[in-house]
Design a protein that fits this description.
The complex is a heterodimer of chains A (242) and B (304).
Chain A lengths: L1 E14 L2 E7 L8 E4 L8 E4 L2 E2 L3 E7 L3 H7 L6 E8 L11 E7 L3 H13 L3 E8 L8 H7 L2 E6 L6 E2 L2 H8 L5 E5 L2 H10 L4 E4 L15 E4 L2 E4 L6 E3 L6
Parallel strand pairs in A: 8-9, 8-12, 9-10, 10-11, 12-13
Antiparallel strand pairs in A: 1-2, 1-7, 2-6, 3-4, 3-7, 5-6, 13-16, 14-15
Chain B lengths: L6 E3 L2 E3 L3 E3 L21 E3 L16 E4 L2 E4 L8 H15 L3 E6 L4 H13 L5 E5 L16 H14 L5 E4 L7 H10 L4 E4 L3 E3 L2 E2 L4 E2 L6 E4 L4 H14 L4 E4 L5 H10 L3 E4 L1 H5 L3 H15 L13
Parallel strand pairs in B: 3-16, 4-7, 7-8, 8-9, 9-10, 10-15, 15-16
Antiparallel strand pairs in B: 1-2, 5-6, 6-14, 11-14, 12-13
Helix pairs in contact in B: 2-3, 3-4, 4-5, 5-6, 6-8
The chains are: A alpha/beta (242), B alpha/beta (304).
Chain lengths: 242, 304
């Protein structure tokens, strides 16, 4: 864990209520998520890392509450206090050859960083990304550049095939030896229930410290209580009690 | 001039008065890789009960203006793991005061847990959290009546022969001085005050409480003036040392808390938004002392 100061390089609306935040500063950051201080709010807000390089850190976020709305109002050049190096992320090494990525909404963001890593390891990638409707679509081109197959689904059929990601899974029957999923809990539950092979899911919980010492985000797992911020947010399918 | 940050607390010498508060610093071990624990005057460990507890369902955390609410619900591995694993592991890497924070749901449980803590070599001081509900007393917290707070104090003092016992008081009472006096009369060696304030938030979109447990304890900078007032009242009414706790977030707050009557000062919620808060406060203390013409922190305790 490190406390760093980053400058906002870009903070722009890219889809419905969805912003892309690019922070410039020392990189690449370790860990699955970063914890951002958003004045005047007391607790930091956790965001998955979507991409990171030597000098940048990219986050996608939705304005769902006061904190994220305040974040959306910050102009380029604003300094942000950031805790980095938090959380246990996806294990790219668990996949031997064929990876299956299933994302729902902004769950696509951390899967993008994973896709980059899998690609660098020379693995075959199938990505299925679900959204409510076309105006919420993000990262399509970015995934297409990395993956061997990308399927998009929307609930209203306004882009890609109509239906849930689980409908696309049934239709495509993708070849995989390990799957990775991130998105709404109901979606991940359905995906983990449907896929018989091994895999893991990235969970979300309201956090206090974000670094494993306040026990504010502990959940029950098959292995006992686990902290989403420190022991996760990524857990193996068989560990999760839905 | 070199500033003297050391204080004497319940017969212990602390190299400075800054102590992360129970529940906001785990067992110290969680942060050992990220910061130098040895700068801390003491560490108050996570509240411990007889049996291991998962605690309350999530969400357990709600953000607020000037602070936060938690309803962690005393998640802990139980007293045996504390004394046999956590404390020995921390003792190996930390030389300051190790404070065991003990909870219980009956007088017998407090007594049993404190006896084990008293027998544990690595523990320097026992802090008894009386904000837990009394399962034999209708669920009201022990710390909300002078009689039950004194009952717990007397019971744990019977079994604690080698270590100072501090009672950590709840602020959710009409007259904290009455309860503080009752604990002193029952033999407490010191007092920690205050614990969190009972509070709640509502998710207006879902029309549900934010916390799964509906209510929780509020802490953070917003409670600082209230905690300070209670420390002032209690320190001036009692003859035993007080650890001040509640909304402390800066070196200036530490000094103010000591002027009100605190011998040592605990930092709580601030650790959650800044895990480096305690080391930063300790590093800043000498310059604040310089500005306020203080050579030794001992000189300002209860100076007003």
């Amino acid at each position: 864990m490190k406390k760093k100061v980053y400058q906002i390089a870009e903070n722009r609306l890219i889809a419905a209520d969805t912003y892309k935040l690019v922070l410039s500063g020392e990189g690449p950051v370790d860990g699955e998520f970063v914890h951002l201080e958003i004045p005047p709010y007391f607790l930091r807000r956790p965001f998955s890392v979507c991409d990171t390089s030597e000098s940048e850190l990219t986050i996608l976020y939705k304005t769902v509450g006061e904190g994220t709305r305040a974040l959306a109002s910050l102009p380029a050049g604003t300094s942000l206090n950031v805790l980095t190096g938090l959380g246990k992320g996806f294990s790219a090494d668990a996949c031997r050859e064929n990876a299956l990525l299933v994302g729902g909404g902004l769950g696509a963001a951390p899967l993008y960083l994973l896709a980059r890593e899998l690609k660098a390891q020379g693995k075959q990638i199938t990505a299925i990304l679900g959204f409510n409707k076309a105006d919420e679509l993000v990262l399509r081109k970015e995934f297409e550049a990395l993956c061997d197959q990308v399927a998009i689904t929307t609930l209203d059929g306004s882009v890609g095939t109509q239906g849930f990601v689980t409908d696309a899974l049934k239709a495509l029957e993708p070849i995989y030896d390990y799957f990775y999923t991130c998105g709404p809990m109901v979606m991940m539950k359905a995906v983990c229930g449907m896929l018989s092979g091994p895999g893991e899911a990235s969970l979300e919980e309201r956090m206090g410290c974000g670094a494993g010492f306040c026990y504010g985000c502990s959940i029950q797992t098959t292995g006992g209580p686990r902290r989403v911020c420190k022991d996760g947010p990524v857990f193996k399918k068989e560990e999760i009690i839905w | 001039m070199v500033k003297d940050l050391s204080v004497q607390l319940g017969g212990l010498r602390l190299k400075n008065p800054v102590i992360p508060a129970s529940g906001t610093f785990g067992f110290g071990l969680e942060l050992a890789g990220d910061l130098d624990l040895n700068v801390m005057g003491g560490i108050s460990l996570k509240g411990t009960t007889r049996e291991a507890r998962y605690g309350n369902p999530v969400p357990r955390i709600a953000d607020c203006t000037g602070g936060m609410i938690n309803s962690v619900g005393l998640q802990n591995p139980g007293i045996d793991v504390l004394v046999n694993e956590k404390v020995p592991a921390l003792r190996k890497i930390y030389g300051g005061a190790i404070i065991a924070n003990i909870s219980g749901f009956s007088v017998d449980e407090y007594r049993e847990n404190c006896a084990k803590a008293d027998a544990c070599e690595g523990i320097d001081l026992i802090e008894v959290n009386v904000s837990c509900p009394n399962v034999h007393g209708g669920g009201l917290a022990f710390g909300t009546s002078a009689r039950s707070a004194a009952q717990v104090t007397a019971a744990v003092k019977e079994v604690c022969h080698s270590k100072p016992v501090f009672i950590k008081l709840s602020p959710n009472v009409t007259d904290i001085v009455e309860i503080a006096r009752a604990c002193e009369d029952a033999g407490a060696d010191g007092l920690t005050l205050v614990n969190t304030f009972l509070a709640m938030r509502i998710d207006m979109v879902r029309r549900k409480p934010v916390l799964a447990n509906t209510m929780g304890g509020f802490s953070g900078p917003a409670i600082f003036p209230i905690a300070l007032r209670m420390v002032y009242q209690v320190a001036h009414a009692c003859h035993i040392p007080v650890m001040g706790c509640g909304g402390v977030s800066s070196a200036r707050d530490v000094v103010e808390m000591m002027m009100a009557g605190a011998t040592a000062v605990q930092v709580g919620a601030e650790n959650l938004r800044n895990p480096f808060a305690c080391p930063e406060i300790i590093e800043t203390l000498p310059s604040v002392m310089e500005e306020l013409h203080i050579d030794s922190l001992k000189d300002i305790i209860a100076c007003i």
